[in-house]
Amino acid sequence: RTDALTKHFGGVGFLKKSPVVQAVDGISLEVKRGETFAIVGESGCGKSTLARLLMRLLEPTSGEVVFDGKDISHAAGPDLTRLRRDMQFIFQDPFSSLNPRMTVGKLIAEPLEVHAPELSAAERRAKVADIMQKVGLPAEHAGRYPHEFSGGQRQRIGIARALITGPKLVIGDEPVSALDVSVQAQVINLLGDLSRELGVTLVVIAHDLGVIRHMSDRVAVMYLGRIVEMGTAEEVFSAPHHPYTQALLASIPAPRPEGEDRMTTLTGEMPSPAAPPPGCRFHTRCPFARPDCKTTVPDLSAVEGASHQVACHHWQEIDAPAGAPQQAPH
Ligand code: SF4
Ligand code: MG
Protein backbone atom coordinates (compact mmCIF):
# COMPACT_ATOMS: atom_id res chain seq x y z
CA ARG A 1 0.00 0.00 0.00
CA THR A 2 1.27 3.50 -0.64
CA ASP A 3 -0.11 6.68 0.75
CA ALA A 4 0.29 10.06 -0.94
CA LEU A 5 3.64 8.76 -2.11
CA THR A 6 5.75 11.47 -3.64
CA LYS A 7 9.26 11.53 -5.01
CA HIS A 8 10.79 14.77 -6.16
CA PHE A 9 14.31 14.75 -7.49
CA GLY A 10 16.64 17.67 -7.14
CA GLY A 11 15.61 20.89 -5.47
CA VAL A 12 17.57 20.07 -2.33
CA GLY A 13 20.94 21.10 -0.94
CA PHE A 14 23.52 21.46 -3.65
CA LEU A 15 21.01 21.03 -6.37
CA LYS A 16 18.94 23.96 -5.19
CA LYS A 17 18.92 25.58 -8.56
CA SER A 18 17.98 22.50 -10.47
CA PRO A 19 14.31 22.05 -11.17
CA VAL A 20 12.33 19.84 -8.87
CA VAL A 21 11.31 16.87 -10.89
CA GLN A 22 8.00 15.58 -9.69
CA ALA A 23 8.61 12.02 -10.79
CA VAL A 24 5.95 10.57 -8.56
CA ASP A 25 3.34 12.92 -7.19
CA GLY A 26 0.95 11.89 -4.47
CA ILE A 27 0.30 8.29 -5.44
CA SER A 28 -1.96 6.20 -3.24
CA LEU A 29 -2.61 2.64 -4.17
CA GLU A 30 -3.02 -0.69 -2.53
CA VAL A 31 -1.72 -3.95 -3.89
CA LYS A 32 -3.51 -6.92 -2.40
CA ARG A 33 -1.71 -10.05 -1.31
CA GLY A 34 -1.43 -12.58 -4.12
CA GLU A 35 -2.68 -10.35 -6.90
CA THR A 36 -0.95 -9.25 -10.08
CA PHE A 37 -0.96 -5.49 -10.28
CA ALA A 38 0.19 -3.71 -13.43
CA ILE A 39 1.44 -0.13 -13.60
CA VAL A 40 1.33 1.22 -17.13
CA GLY A 41 2.44 4.41 -18.81
CA GLU A 42 4.83 5.93 -21.34
CA SER A 43 8.50 6.18 -20.50
CA GLY A 44 9.09 9.17 -18.27
CA CYS A 45 5.73 8.87 -16.51
CA GLY A 46 7.43 7.94 -13.24
CA LYS A 47 6.58 4.25 -13.17
CA SER A 48 10.17 3.10 -12.71
CA THR A 49 10.60 5.61 -9.90
CA LEU A 50 7.44 4.27 -8.32
CA ALA A 51 8.80 0.71 -8.61
CA ARG A 52 12.03 1.77 -6.91
CA LEU A 53 10.10 3.47 -4.12
CA LEU A 54 8.04 0.33 -3.59
CA MET A 55 11.27 -1.69 -3.38
CA ARG A 56 12.86 0.79 -1.01
CA LEU A 57 15.66 1.33 -3.53
CA LEU A 58 14.74 5.01 -3.17
CA GLU A 59 13.41 6.98 -0.22
CA PRO A 60 10.28 9.04 -0.83
CA THR A 61 10.27 12.83 -0.43
CA SER A 62 7.02 12.45 1.45
CA GLY A 63 4.30 9.89 1.93
CA GLU A 64 4.85 6.29 2.88
CA VAL A 65 5.15 2.77 1.54
CA VAL A 66 3.56 0.18 3.78
CA PHE A 67 4.58 -3.43 3.28
CA ASP A 68 3.13 -6.16 5.48
CA GLY A 69 1.74 -3.54 7.84
CA LYS A 70 5.04 -1.67 8.26
CA ASP A 71 6.17 1.65 6.85
CA ILE A 72 9.28 0.68 4.93
CA SER A 73 9.99 3.99 3.24
CA HIS A 74 13.05 4.62 5.39
CA ALA A 75 13.92 1.02 6.30
CA ALA A 76 17.61 0.34 6.96
CA GLY A 77 19.96 -2.27 8.46
CA PRO A 78 18.46 -5.70 9.28
CA ASP A 79 14.97 -4.50 8.28
CA LEU A 80 16.31 -3.74 4.84
CA THR A 81 18.01 -7.14 4.56
CA ARG A 82 14.73 -8.84 5.41
CA LEU A 83 12.97 -6.71 2.81
CA ARG A 84 15.49 -7.73 0.17
CA ARG A 85 14.47 -11.33 0.77
CA ASP A 86 10.73 -10.68 0.82
CA MET A 87 10.72 -8.41 -2.22
CA GLN A 88 12.58 -9.30 -5.36
CA PHE A 89 13.16 -7.34 -8.54
CA ILE A 90 13.17 -8.52 -12.14
CA PHE A 91 15.07 -6.20 -14.40
CA GLN A 92 14.33 -5.10 -17.90
CA ASP A 93 17.42 -6.40 -19.61
CA PRO A 94 18.19 -9.92 -18.46
CA PHE A 95 21.66 -9.89 -20.01
CA SER A 96 23.05 -6.80 -18.35
CA SER A 97 21.83 -7.91 -14.95
CA LEU A 98 23.53 -11.32 -15.13
CA ASN A 99 27.23 -11.76 -14.44
CA PRO A 100 28.59 -13.36 -17.64
CA ARG A 101 31.34 -15.25 -15.78
CA MET A 102 29.00 -17.14 -13.48
CA THR A 103 27.29 -20.36 -14.46
CA VAL A 104 23.53 -20.29 -14.54
CA GLY A 105 23.33 -22.60 -11.53
CA LYS A 106 25.52 -20.23 -9.50
CA LEU A 107 23.60 -17.19 -10.68
CA ILE A 108 20.30 -18.67 -9.62
CA ALA A 109 21.74 -19.82 -6.27
CA GLU A 110 23.40 -16.47 -5.53
CA PRO A 111 20.49 -14.85 -3.63
CA LEU A 112 20.44 -17.87 -1.30
CA GLU A 113 23.96 -17.14 -0.11
CA VAL A 114 22.71 -13.90 1.42
CA HIS A 115 19.23 -14.90 2.46
CA ALA A 116 19.55 -18.59 3.33
CA PRO A 117 23.22 -19.16 4.29
CA GLU A 118 22.20 -22.11 6.50
CA LEU A 119 21.48 -24.30 3.46
CA SER A 120 23.98 -27.02 2.60
CA ALA A 121 25.44 -27.18 -0.91
CA ALA A 122 23.21 -30.16 -1.67
CA GLU A 123 20.09 -28.35 -0.46
CA ARG A 124 21.04 -25.36 -2.56
CA ARG A 125 21.50 -27.53 -5.64
CA ALA A 126 18.12 -29.15 -5.07
CA LYS A 127 16.45 -25.75 -4.81
CA VAL A 128 18.15 -24.57 -7.99
CA ALA A 129 17.08 -27.69 -9.89
CA ASP A 130 13.52 -27.26 -8.64
CA ILE A 131 13.23 -23.60 -9.62
CA MET A 132 14.89 -24.23 -13.00
CA GLN A 133 12.29 -26.86 -13.74
CA LYS A 134 9.52 -24.44 -12.66
CA VAL A 135 10.72 -21.72 -15.05
CA GLY A 136 11.16 -24.20 -17.88
CA LEU A 137 14.95 -24.47 -18.01
CA PRO A 138 16.53 -27.94 -18.22
CA ALA A 139 18.32 -28.58 -14.90
CA GLU A 140 21.28 -30.09 -16.78
CA HIS A 141 21.97 -26.60 -18.18
CA ALA A 142 23.02 -25.36 -14.72
CA GLY A 143 26.68 -25.54 -15.74
CA ARG A 144 26.29 -23.27 -18.77
CA TYR A 145 26.93 -19.55 -19.02
CA PRO A 146 24.39 -16.79 -19.73
CA HIS A 147 25.63 -16.15 -23.28
CA GLU A 148 24.67 -19.70 -24.22
CA PHE A 149 21.01 -18.83 -23.66
CA SER A 150 18.49 -16.89 -25.72
CA GLY A 151 16.99 -13.63 -24.43
CA GLY A 152 13.82 -15.38 -23.35
CA GLN A 153 15.77 -18.06 -21.51
CA ARG A 154 17.90 -15.42 -19.82
CA GLN A 155 14.78 -13.73 -18.53
CA ARG A 156 13.70 -17.15 -17.21
CA ILE A 157 17.02 -17.18 -15.32
CA GLY A 158 16.15 -13.72 -13.96
CA ILE A 159 12.76 -15.00 -12.84
CA ALA A 160 14.34 -18.05 -11.19
CA ARG A 161 16.75 -15.79 -9.29
CA ALA A 162 13.86 -13.62 -8.13
CA LEU A 163 11.77 -16.55 -6.94
CA ILE A 164 14.37 -18.74 -5.29
CA THR A 165 14.31 -16.92 -1.96
CA GLY A 166 10.55 -17.44 -1.69
CA PRO A 167 9.68 -13.73 -1.81
CA LYS A 168 6.25 -12.36 -0.92
CA LEU A 169 6.41 -9.69 -3.60
CA VAL A 170 8.13 -9.60 -6.98
CA ILE A 171 8.38 -6.35 -8.92
CA GLY A 172 9.18 -6.55 -12.61
CA ASP A 173 10.24 -3.31 -14.29
CA GLU A 174 9.39 -3.87 -17.94
CA PRO A 175 10.43 -7.50 -17.57
CA VAL A 176 9.84 -8.41 -21.20
CA SER A 177 10.31 -5.20 -23.14
CA ALA A 178 13.89 -6.12 -24.14
CA LEU A 179 12.72 -9.44 -25.60
CA ASP A 180 11.51 -10.37 -29.06
CA VAL A 181 7.79 -9.85 -29.38
CA SER A 182 7.40 -13.56 -30.11
CA VAL A 183 8.71 -14.59 -26.68
CA GLN A 184 7.24 -11.70 -24.65
CA ALA A 185 3.91 -13.44 -24.15
CA GLN A 186 5.56 -16.72 -23.15
CA VAL A 187 7.71 -15.08 -20.50
CA ILE A 188 4.95 -12.86 -19.13
CA ASN A 189 2.54 -15.79 -18.96
CA LEU A 190 5.16 -17.85 -17.17
CA LEU A 191 5.59 -15.06 -14.64
CA GLY A 192 1.84 -14.84 -14.13
CA ASP A 193 1.43 -18.62 -13.77
CA LEU A 194 4.31 -18.91 -11.32
CA SER A 195 3.14 -16.09 -9.12
CA ARG A 196 -0.29 -17.70 -8.95
CA GLU A 197 1.16 -21.14 -8.28
CA LEU A 198 3.54 -19.89 -5.59
CA GLY A 199 1.17 -17.31 -4.13
CA VAL A 200 3.56 -14.46 -4.83
CA THR A 201 2.24 -10.93 -5.22
CA LEU A 202 3.37 -9.50 -8.52
CA VAL A 203 3.74 -5.87 -9.55
CA VAL A 204 4.53 -5.47 -13.23
CA ILE A 205 5.61 -2.18 -14.74
CA ALA A 206 4.98 -1.85 -18.47
CA HIS A 207 4.68 0.76 -21.18
CA ASP A 208 2.60 -1.51 -23.32
CA LEU A 209 -0.90 -2.37 -22.19
CA GLY A 210 -1.03 -5.28 -24.62
CA VAL A 211 1.70 -7.14 -22.76
CA ILE A 212 -0.07 -7.18 -19.42
CA ARG A 213 -3.64 -7.43 -20.68
CA HIS A 214 -4.18 -11.08 -19.90
CA MET A 215 -2.03 -11.53 -16.85
CA SER A 216 -3.01 -8.72 -14.49
CA ASP A 217 -5.80 -8.63 -11.95
CA ARG A 218 -5.72 -4.87 -11.59
CA VAL A 219 -4.16 -2.05 -13.57
CA ALA A 220 -3.06 1.49 -12.74
CA VAL A 221 -2.40 3.89 -15.62
CA MET A 222 0.17 6.60 -14.89
CA TYR A 223 0.69 9.91 -16.59
CA LEU A 224 3.34 12.40 -15.49
CA GLY A 225 3.72 11.10 -11.97
CA ARG A 226 0.07 10.58 -11.21
CA ILE A 227 -2.40 7.74 -11.54
CA VAL A 228 -5.10 8.73 -14.02
CA GLU A 229 -7.10 5.51 -14.02
CA MET A 230 -7.15 2.39 -11.90
CA GLY A 231 -9.36 -0.66 -11.81
CA THR A 232 -9.61 -4.34 -12.53
CA ALA A 233 -8.05 -5.37 -15.84
CA GLU A 234 -11.56 -6.02 -17.10
CA GLU A 235 -12.73 -2.50 -16.18
CA VAL A 236 -9.73 -0.71 -17.60
CA PHE A 237 -9.51 -2.71 -20.81
CA SER A 238 -13.16 -3.02 -21.71
CA ALA A 239 -14.47 0.30 -20.44
CA PRO A 240 -11.60 2.80 -20.22
CA HIS A 241 -12.84 6.23 -19.14
CA HIS A 242 -9.73 8.36 -19.16
CA PRO A 243 -8.81 9.78 -22.58
CA TYR A 244 -5.19 8.82 -21.95
CA THR A 245 -6.06 5.19 -21.24
CA GLN A 246 -8.20 5.16 -24.36
CA ALA A 247 -5.28 6.48 -26.38
CA LEU A 248 -2.89 3.90 -24.94
CA LEU A 249 -5.32 1.13 -25.77
CA ALA A 250 -5.72 2.45 -29.30
CA SER A 251 -1.97 2.25 -29.78
CA ILE A 252 -1.76 -1.48 -29.07
CA PRO A 253 -0.48 -2.96 -32.31
CA ALA A 254 -3.09 -5.65 -32.74
CA PRO A 255 -6.08 -6.22 -34.96
CA ARG A 256 -8.92 -4.26 -33.43
CA PRO A 257 -12.64 -4.76 -33.64
CA GLU A 258 -14.40 -2.60 -36.19
CA GLY A 259 -15.19 0.92 -35.16
CA GLU A 260 -12.36 1.22 -32.68
CA ASP A 261 -10.56 3.61 -35.00
CA ARG A 262 -12.76 6.26 -33.44
CA MET A 263 -10.57 6.02 -30.41
CA THR A 264 -8.37 8.83 -29.29
CA THR A 265 -4.89 8.74 -30.71
CA LEU A 266 -2.01 10.24 -28.84
CA THR A 267 -0.39 13.26 -30.37
CA GLY A 268 2.33 15.50 -29.06
CA GLU A 269 5.09 14.85 -26.60
CA MET A 270 4.67 14.23 -22.94
CA PRO A 271 5.60 17.46 -21.13
CA SER A 272 8.66 17.36 -18.89
CA PRO A 273 8.01 16.17 -15.35
CA ALA A 274 10.13 19.15 -14.27
CA ALA A 275 7.40 21.47 -15.50
CA PRO A 276 4.14 19.58 -15.41
CA PRO A 277 1.16 21.50 -16.75
CA PRO A 278 -1.19 22.90 -14.09
CA GLY A 279 -4.63 21.44 -13.60
CA CYS A 280 -5.01 18.13 -15.37
CA ARG A 281 -1.50 17.19 -16.49
CA PHE A 282 -2.91 15.62 -19.62
CA HIS A 283 -4.67 18.78 -20.83
CA THR A 284 -1.91 19.70 -23.31
CA ARG A 285 -2.59 16.49 -25.25
CA CYS A 286 -6.23 15.86 -24.48
CA PRO A 287 -8.70 16.35 -27.32
CA PHE A 288 -11.49 16.86 -24.80
CA ALA A 289 -9.81 19.53 -22.67
CA ARG A 290 -12.09 22.32 -21.41
CA PRO A 291 -11.08 25.53 -19.63
CA ASP A 292 -11.42 24.02 -16.14
CA CYS A 293 -8.96 21.26 -17.09
CA LYS A 294 -6.17 23.85 -17.19
CA THR A 295 -6.79 25.08 -13.68
CA THR A 296 -8.32 22.35 -11.57
CA VAL A 297 -6.55 19.10 -10.74
CA PRO A 298 -8.89 16.14 -11.24
CA ASP A 299 -8.79 13.70 -8.33
CA LEU A 300 -9.03 9.96 -8.75
CA SER A 301 -12.62 9.15 -7.98
CA ALA A 302 -14.81 6.10 -8.22
CA VAL A 303 -16.67 5.36 -11.43
CA GLU A 304 -18.98 2.40 -11.19
CA GLY A 305 -18.28 0.52 -8.00
CA ALA A 306 -15.38 1.32 -5.76
CA SER A 307 -12.76 -0.57 -7.76
CA HIS A 308 -12.78 1.52 -10.93
CA GLN A 309 -11.39 5.02 -10.49
CA VAL A 310 -10.64 7.77 -12.96
CA ALA A 311 -9.06 11.22 -12.68
CA CYS A 312 -10.87 13.27 -15.31
CA HIS A 313 -13.41 16.07 -14.91
CA HIS A 314 -15.33 15.11 -18.00
CA TRP A 315 -15.19 11.36 -18.38
CA GLN A 316 -18.96 11.10 -18.26
CA GLU A 317 -19.36 13.41 -21.24
CA ILE A 318 -16.66 11.72 -23.25
CA ASP A 319 -17.93 8.98 -25.51
CA ALA A 320 -16.68 5.59 -24.47
CA PRO A 321 -14.87 4.03 -27.41
CA ALA A 322 -16.97 2.05 -29.81
CA GLY A 323 -16.61 -1.65 -29.23
CA ALA A 324 -16.54 -1.26 -25.49
CA PRO A 325 -19.86 -2.46 -24.13
CA GLN A 326 -21.59 0.48 -22.47
CA GLN A 327 -24.97 -0.94 -21.79
CA ALA A 328 -25.87 -4.42 -22.96
CA PRO A 329 -28.58 -4.13 -25.62
CA HIS A 330 -31.81 -5.93 -24.76
FE1 SF4 B 1 -8.88 15.72 -20.70
FE2 SF4 B 1 -9.83 17.47 -18.95
FE3 SF4 B 1 -10.21 14.90 -18.54
FE4 SF4 B 1 -7.80 15.97 -18.27
S1 SF4 B 1 -9.59 16.41 -17.03
S2 SF4 B 1 -8.27 14.10 -19.28
S3 SF4 B 1 -7.80 17.49 -19.90
S4 SF4 B 1 -11.03 16.10 -20.24
MG1 MG C 1 11.37 2.97 -17.11
UniProtKB/TrEMBL annotation:
**Pfam families tied to this protein:** ABC_tran, oligo_HPY
Domain of life of the native organism: Bacteria
Q: Which InterPro entries match?
A: AAA+_ATPase (IPR003593), ABC_transp_ATP-bind (IPR050319), ABC_transporter-like_ATP-bd (IPR003439), ABC_transporter-like_CS (IPR017871), Oligopep_ABC_C (IPR013563), P-loop_NTPase (IPR027417)
Q: Where in the cell is it found?
A: Cell inner membrane
GO annotation, biological process? peptide transport; transmembrane transport
Every copy of the ABC transporter domain together lies at 1-249
Q: Which UniProt keywords apply?
A: ATP-binding, Nucleotide-binding, Transport
Query: Is ATP-binding there in the keyword field?
Result: yes
GO MF: ATP binding; ATP hydrolysis activity
GO CC, alphabetical: plasma membrane
Query: Mind telling me which residue stretches traverse the membrane in this protein?
Result: none
Checking PROSITE patterns in the record gives: ABC_TRANSPORTER_1, ABC_TRANSPORTER_2
Q: How does it sit in the membrane?
A: Peripheral membrane protein
Entry's PANTHER family? Answer: D,D-DIPEPTIDE TRANSPORT ATP-BINDING PROTEIN DDPF-RELATED, TRANSPORT ATP-BINDING PROTEIN
Protein family membership? Belongs to the ABC transporter superfamily.
Q: What is this protein called?
A: Peptide ABC transporter ATPase
The organism of origin for this protein = Phaeobacter gallaeciensis
